[in-house]
Structures are given as C-alpha cells and as structure tokens.
Amino acid sequence: MTNRAEFAVHPILAPVLETVLDAVVVMTVHGEVCGWNKVAEQVFGWPSAETNGRMLADLIIPEIHREAHAEGLRRLVKGGAARVLNRRIEITALCRDEREIPIELSITTALNGADLVFVGFIRDISERRNAEALIRRQALETRLMFEISDMAAESDSFESALAKVLQAICEITGWPVGHAFIVPPSSPNLIISSTVWHEAQPALADGLRKATEETVFGPNVGLPGRIMQSGGPLWISDTDSDSNFPRKGRGFLGAFGFPLKRDGQIVAILEFFSQSEAPPEPEMLLTVRALGEQVGRVFERKRTQDRQQLLVRELNHRVKNILSVVQAIAQQTFRRASTIDEAFVSFRGRLMAVARAQDILVSEKLGNATLEEVIKGALRGSGLAEDRVTMRGPSLLVSARNAVSVSLGIHELCTNAFKYGSLSVESGSVAVTWGETISDGHPQFVFEWREIDGPPVVPPQNKGFGTNLLERGLAAELGGKITIEYDAAGLICRFSVPIPAAQGAQK
C-alpha cells in the first residue's frame, strides 16, 4: 500500500486550502485525495484525516458518475484532452451520510512539489437551488392560481373545473395522478367516483381506476371516506402500510386528499397519488386547498344557474297557467252573469283574487298561518268560487316555507281542474280534507284533493310539468309521498307524510 506521507500537501498549497471560502479538494493523477480543507470537512462530513490517500470516487462521486470520472483520469494520464479543467460546472456530489447535494465545481492543475495534482474548488449550491426551485414554484403557483381563478369566473362546467384543478395541482406537486369524487348535495354521505382523472402518462392509473370503481366508499372508508368523516385534508405517506386503504398494491405509495366545500358542506373530494413514499408537506396542502376553493366557486355558480333556470321554467309555466285560469274565469263569469256590469264586477274581483294569491306564492316573508288559510288563499287566487269547494280538517300551523309549497300545489291542482277536471264544467266541485291516520302502525298526516261531478277522467300519456312540480314541491320539499289516482269519477290526489316529519317541518 502507498505510504500516506506521500500524499501530504506541499507547503505552497497549504495556505490556499485554509484561506479560501469554498471547499477545496486536491487529488493526484491516480485519483487519490492528498488535500482536504476545513470547508470540505463541513460540506461532506469527512474529516481530513480520514480522506488522505483514499480514492476520491469512493468518497464524494455518485456511482452514476464514477465510470466517467475514471475514464477522464485515464485519458489525462495518456495525454488526452481535458474536458472539465478550468471550467465551472454544476453536478452532484455525495456526503458521508449518503445525501446527494448539488455543487458548483471548478478544477485546475497545480504542482505539489514535483507532482501534478488536480485542485477542485467546490461550492455547495443547495440553498441556491432551493431558492431557485422556490421561485419557480411560486411563479408556477401564481400562474396556475390566476388561470384557475379566471376559469372559475368563466366556466359553467363543474367537471371541466375539476379537470383543470387536478392538472394544476399535479403540475405544482409533481405527483402523477389526480382524481375527483363527487358528493351530491342531496346525499351528503354518498361518495361517487367521477370520470375526472389526471394522469401524467396514458394508462398510468388503470389499476387504481379499476380498484376505485370496484370499491364502495362511505364515511370513514378509505382515503375519501376518512376525509368526509373528518372534514379536513389527509396525507398518507405509505398506502401499503395503511390498514384503511382498500386500493393498495396498485403501484402508488404516497397519497393525499382534501375536501371541496361550499357553505360548509362537502361537494367534492380531490385525491392525488405518488409512486413513492411521500412525507406530508403542510405548505403544499395550503396551496392546493386555495386552488380547490376556486373550483367551489364554479360549483356554487352552477347550482345558482340551475336554480334560476328552474325558477324561470316554473314562472313560465305559472304564467301560462294563470292565462288558462283567467280564460276559465272569463268563460264562467260571462256565461253565468245576467248583465255585462254584473259580469265585469265579478270578473274584476276574481282577477284581484288571483293577484293576491300570486303575492302569497312569491312572498319570502310570509309568517306562520293555518293550513286552512293557506288553502283558501290559494283557491281564491285560482278564481274558485267558495260554493264549489268543501274543506274539512283540524287547525294546523304551516311554516312560511311550506306554505309556499302548499300554495303552489293547490294552485296547480286547481289549474288542472279548470283545464281538464271537475272545475271545467259548471256542475263540478272539489272536496279537500286533511288530518291524521295510522299507516303500518305509524301516525301519518294525510291530505286529499278529490274532484267530484266532473267529466270522465282519462289518464295522461306522459307525466307533465305540473305533476313534476307537485312531486318536487309537496313531496320532495315536505319529505312526504304524492299519489295521483285517475279515477273515472274524478281525479284524486293524496299527500302523506310521517307525523314527526310533518311536525318538524312546521318549526
């Protein structure tokens, strides 16, 4: 073995090693270390005493670069051209603890006594690289936040907004796969896998997608279920070691997800996957949540637009119904009146009743009233004379919200009766009853609309908008059940709801 004394640094080089601010490593033409200053000890973790005479490649050169390093030395020994001398290059180096760090390296030659040596000036540029990466990431986040915000202000599609935010988050994090679950507003405990995925490469997540489709997710089941249960983000460093991750073994280890909320309610859950283990990064979660909040704006606007479209359709339908009611009022009023003046007074009074009922239907400040008052107001608004209807039932208070639903239902039934049912002929009438009954051992509230002495009833070929409005307004809004019986003697509409639900609706 070569004597270590042979690798001592010449006195001329010694001051250089100790005064420069960079790490300095001196190497012989055969690759052995013969100089190692204090800064090199700090950067690489090797004391100078342990490096002298050892091969530099074994200390700080990553394995991937060792062959090129050896080939370069052989070329120089044979008199070949130098490729890295007197240049500044950026490369990576190994530390004693096996960390690989980025360095800036410049190499020159010097004489160590009579021997030629290579002197490497090395600067750890980890902080600079981290700062550059932070700047790039912040610029990327700013750009993507702007794009998402702009898209949120313009897009009408919740799905396209989800696809855009999945792509943005994967771009920021470098994670290859993102996926969105949908949580229907009407079923807050239901988690539905959407068709919205983002993959860095085609077919990368085929196995994960298949496992997702085969798994039934609910509260506290898997990643999305646990996010739903907690209402907050969740990070899993290693899915294979997680007992509550049913999709493990699909090529992904790191996973994190977070909920999208609107008005405090979860509307979607976004999840992301990495092929390697990944420790939590709180700063990244803050960033991706901010992006996700922009998508929530799209959902809210889409829901508002859907509600507006429904209101426009209902308004359009109601206007047509009012015109039909006015026509029926005019026909019956002028047909039965003995004089024009009498007909005019009666007609004007009935039109005013219709207007008063419309005030009830559109009012959002209606106080509690009895069910009988609400029914009478809706009947008067439809132009129905009091002598053509009988009512029987106990006194029950109805909340403002439910009063509007009841009024809409009565208005619709009256309109249909004027068009096709018992109110379309002078001899026809209507019986309205309500009260409590026992069904399957449970108390229920029952409301019935029964048409009498009208023309023969013929069931419609298709369910019309009016029927849909009854089912949506009375049944869905009040939590009950609507049945419509097209009896030959007259239409019968029944609404029933369990007593506890009916009582709760009044509060």
Reconstruct the topology from this structure.
Elements: H1 14-19, E1 23-28, E2 33-36, H2 38-44, H3 48-51, H4 56-59, H5 63-77, E3 88-94, E4 100-112, E5 115-124, H6 126-154, H7 158-173, E6 177-182, E7 192-199, H8 206-214, H9 222-230, E8 234-236, E9 254-262, E10 265-274, H10 282-336, H11 340-362, E11 369-370, H12 371-381, E12 389-392, E13 397-398, H13 400-419, E14 429-439, E15 442-452, H14 465-478, E16 481-487, E17 490-498, H15 499-506
Parallel strand pairs: 12-14
Antiparallel strand pairs: 1-2, 1-5, 3-4, 4-5, 6-7, 6-10, 8-9, 9-10, 11-13, 14-15, 15-17, 16-17
- Compute the number of structural domains: 3
Mean pLDDT: 79
Class per helix and strand makeup: alpha+beta
CATH superfamily of the largest domain: GAF domain
Contiguous low-pLDDT stretches (5 residues minimum) are: 1-6, 501-507
Using the 3D structure, state the CATH architecture of the largest domain.
2-Layer Sandwich
What topology, given as strand order, has the largest sheet?
A: 2-1-5-4-3
Give the strand tally.
17
The percent of residues in helical segments reads 40-55%
The name of the CATH topology of the largest domain is Beta-Lactamase
The helix tally amounts to 15
The backbone outline, from C-alpha atoms, is rod-shaped
Largest sheet features: 5 strands, antiparallel
Query: What is the rounded distance between the termini?
Result: 95 Å
**What is the CATH class name of the largest domain?**
Alpha Beta
Computed CA radius of gyration, to the nearest angstrom:
40 Å
Please report which band the strand proportion falls in: under 5%, 5-15%, 15-25%, 25-35%, 35-45% or over 45%.
Answer: 15-25%
